[in-house]
Specification:
By secondary structure, the protein is α/β, with parallel strands linked by helices. It contains four helices and five strands; from the N terminus they run βαβαβαβαβ.
Length: about 140
Amino acid sequence: MMAHKIVVGYDGSDSAKAALSFAVNVARLQGGSIVVAHVLEWSPYSFLTPNELEERHKRRGEELARAEDAILLPALKKLTESGVPISTALKYGHIASTLAQIAKDEGADQIVIGRNGEPGLASRVFGSVAISLAQGAPVPVTIVP
């Protein structure tokens, strides 16, 4: 039996914290590990000039560094006492397909995401992530309320 590995989609929100807490409990019970994954939404623009592309690439690096400092490192700090092996993944891309790809790359057997209860755009965006993941993920997806 291979060790249970869970990818958690994490953005620092309350619903993401609930998902991470759920996943840590599951991993602790089943002797598994966690990959805390943050995806920055990114769409490539093919019509940019080489200078604009270079500038955008630089900004992209800065955004990744900021996301690591502001979102992933605080989550890792809280989990050091959990006794569960934790790693991180920080990527650019479409959220659902990137989380699915991270699960494949990591050999994970589950993806856990939080349900965002806010009205308006956030829930529509989240809803599309949940639906896309449910339809296209290579492993079971758990949505934590």
